[in-house]
Amino acid sequence: MGDTAHYPLLERIDSPEELRRVPVSRLSGLAGEVRQMLLNSVAAHGGHLGAGLGAVELAIALHYVFQTPNDRLVWDVGHQAYPHKILTGRRERLETIRQLNGLAPFPKRTESAYDCFGVGHSSTSISAALGMLLATEQQGNDRKIVAIIGDGGLTAGLAYEALNHAGGMDSDLLIVLNDNEMSISPSVGAMHNYLTRLISSPLSWSTRELSKRLLKYAPPLYEMAKRAEAQIKKLVLPGTLFEELGFTYFGPVDGHDLDSLVPTLRNLRNIHGPRLLHVVTRKGKGYGPAESNPVAYHGVGPFDPRVGLTRSKQASAKSYTQVFSEWVCDMAAADQRLVAITPAMREGSGLVEFQSRFPQRYFDVGIAEQHSVTLAAGLACEGHKPVVAIYSTFLQRAYDQLIHDVALQNLPVLFAIDRAGLVGPDGPTHAGSFDLTYMRCLPNLVLMAPADENECRQMLYTGFQLDRPAAVRYPRGCGPGVEVAEKMEALPVGQAELRRHVSDIAILAFGAMVQPAVEAAEQLDATVVNMRFIKPLDESLVLELAGSHQLLVTVEDNVVAGGAGTAVSECLSRHNVAQPVIHIGLPDRFIDHGGRDELLGLAGLDSSGIIAQIQKIRPPEHGRVASGNQPADHNVTVLRLHATASVAKLGH
User: In a 3-state reduction of DSSP, which class is residue 296?
Assistant: First the structure.
C-alpha cells in the first residue's frame, strides 16, 4: 500500500528554515498535510501513530518559533517525534521507519542534527535539556533549550529530580508539557488561551516584575499582593506545583490551535528563567478511530486507514505475553496472596484480563520502574506474593532496587520479564540484551529462560512457589508452537533438560535459542541441552558433557560478556576442567532496529549462523577442534580452559 497523496505545502519544506518562510495563516493547512502523510505512511508500513498525530501542531510551532538546530528541541521518549522527523528533512524516508537500515523509531543523534538527544526511555528530556543549557551558558552561547515531555513522562522520579534542580537555579529553561490525556479539558478554550497569551506577553511580564520590585518597598502591600496572586492561581491555574518548584507556569493552551500556540511560544522564547508551558493535545488527533481508541493506535502494523484496525487471525502459536497473561490469572485464582504490578505496561505485559478480574490486586504505578520494584518488596514483607510484569529494558532502570530492596533482603518477588533479547523494530533502546548479565551476578536470585510456551508457564509457577526472588525472562512474540498444559507443575530448580544426545559437540542453549540450536544440531549431529536455569546452573550436567564431548558451545540471546555462557566457563574453571568452549551470543555493540528474525540472523543467532560459527572453529571435514588462534566472529568468544587459568581469544 503506497502513499500516492499530494502534499502541496509540505513537499516544498525540507528543513525548518523553509518552514519558517511559510505565512502563519497557512500553518494550519500544513498541519493537515503532515497529519495525512503520517497517517498514510504508518498505515502502509506500521509504526507509532497516535502520539504523533497528536503532536503535529506542536512540532510545527516549535520549529517555526525556535531557530533549530541551533536552538535545541529535546523530545521525551520519541513516540511523538514523527512530525518532527517529517519537518527536518526526513520526509521521503518516513516509510522506512523501524525497518532494517531505515529511519530510527525515536530521535537519534547520528541520524540528524535536529535530533540533539537520543531517546527511547521516558522522562529524560528535562535532565538532558538542563545539561545542554548549563553547557551553553558556560560557552557563552545564547541558544534556547526546550524540553518537550508528556504527562505520562512526569510520573517518573527522574523528571522531578530534574525539575527540582532546574527550578532551584534560575535556569533559562523552557519545558513544554504535552498533556494528551485531556484531564483538564474544561480549562481549554478561547478565553483561557487569551489569558495565557496575555500573561506571557512581554508587556504583562515586565509589568508583573516591575510591580513586584516596587511593592517590595511597601511590605504590607507586597504581602497582600502575593497572597492575592496565590489565591488566583489556585482558582484559575493548575500550575501551583510547578510554581512551587521554581517554574513560572503558563497554560493550559490548546495544542492544536496554531493561532494561539505560535504567539505564546514567541512570547515565552524571550522570557528568562525556568518556565513551563502546559499544552493540551489529543492522541490520534484528526483520525477518528485513533482518537476514540488511542491505546490500540499507539503502535500499529500495516492497516487500511479507510477501515481502521481489524482483528487479525488468531496465530497458531501463543505469544509468550499471552502465556503470562493466562498464567497470572490462573495463579491469582488459586492463591489470594498474588498481586500484580506493572510500570505503565498493562497492555504490553498482558495484564488487561488480570485488571478486569482482580482489580484490587492490580497496581499500575505509571512510568516508575524503581517504585514498582520497591513497592513489590514492601508487599512481600507483609506476606503477599508480588509479580512484577516488566520489560527487560525497563528493569534496567530499577537495578538498584532489584539489588538492594529485593535480592539483598531475599524477598519472594517474581519478575516476569518480557521482551528479552532482541525486540526488533524498536531498536537498541528497547532491546533486552543485558538482563542475563546484570541479573546472573545477584545473590539469592533464581534466573530462568523458557525454551517454549509450556515451559514458560511452568517456570512462572516454579518461581512463584519459591520463597526467594525469581525471574523468568522471555522474548517478544510467539514461541515454537508447543501446546500449553493447563496443569502447573514446578520444575526441579537448577536442572537442565537433555534434548538430543550424541557425541563430539554439545550445544548448551538458553531460552529462545533452544529451537535454532536443535535445528543446527540436526545438521551437525550434535548434542543439545535446554539449560532452563541460568542460575543456579546445572553444573553436574555441564561437567558430565565436558567429559564426554570435545567441544562445548553455549548459545544465548544476551551479550556474551558476563552472560549465561560465561557461567558455564566459570563452572569449568572452578572445577579445574580443561575444555574448549565457544560462546555465541549478541555482539559487543548496540544492534539497530529491524525485524526480530532479521536481526537474529545478522547476529548469527539463527540455525545457519550457529552452524557457521561452530564450523569456523571445527571445520566439518575434521574430527577435532581447530587451533586456538582460529578467527572467530565478533559475537563469539572461544575459550580453551586449563586447570590453572582461563584464556579468552577474541576474534575480529
Answer: coil
CA distances from 192 to 197, 199, 280 (A): 9, 10, 12
**Which amino acid is present at 561?**
A
Q: Rounded to whole angstroms, how far apart are CA atoms 269 and 264?
A: 9
Query: Which triple of cell numbers denotes residue 48?
Result: 507509532
pTM metric for this prediction: 0.87
Q: How many CA within 13 A on the CB side of residue 360?
A: 3
CA dihedral 154, 156, 160, 161 (to 10 degrees): -150
Distance separating alpha carbons of residues 363 and 603, to the nearest angstrom: 37
State the Cα–Cα distance between residues 2 and 305, nearest whole angstrom.
12
* Closest to 322 in 3D by CA, of 481, 429, 516: 481
Enter the DSSP assignment of 156.
S
CB 69 within 8 A of CB 77: no
Q: What is the DSSP-derived secondary structure letter of residue 187?
A: G
Of all residues in the chain, the percent with pLDDT exceeding 70 is: 84
Residue that has been written with the C-alpha cell 538492594 in this structure: 404
Domain final residue pick, 235, 269, 300: 300
Total residues belonging to the chain: 652
8 A C-beta contact, residue 37 and residue 56: no
Active-site annotation, residues: 283, 369, 397
Select the more confidently predicted residue: 633 or 17.
Answer: 17
| Three cell numbers, residue 478 | 510467539
Residue 487 inside a domain? The answer is: no
What whole-number distance in Å separates Cα of residue 382 and Cα of residue 543? 41
Give me 640's grid cell.
580453551
In angstroms, what CA-CA distances link 241 with 164, 387, 398, 473, 591?
11, 33, 26, 39, 41
Take residue 331 and report the three cell numbers written for it: 495463579
Nearest partner of 550 among 583, 513, 520, 507, judged by Cα: 507
Say how many Å lie between the first and final Cα of the chain, rounded: 42
Alpha-carbon distance of 613 to 638, in angstroms, equals 10
CA distance 157 to 378: 18
Residues 173 and 44 in one domain: yes
Q: Which of 400, 385, 392, 390 is nearest to 468 (CA)?
A: 385
- HEC profile of 409-451: CCCCCEEEEEEEECCCCCCCCCCECCHHHHHHCCCCCEEECCC
Query: pLDDT digits over 621-634, tens only?
Result: 544 554 444 434 44
CATH of the domain at 426: 3.40.50.970
Q: Which cell numbers hold the place of 96? A: 522506512
Torsion of CA 203, 204, 210, 215, to 10 degrees: 150
Domain range for 589 is 497-650
Same domain, 536 and 642: yes
In angstroms, the Cα distances linking 114 to 75, 127, 134 are 11, 18, 19
pLDDT in tens, 291-314: 999 989 998 999 999 999 987 655
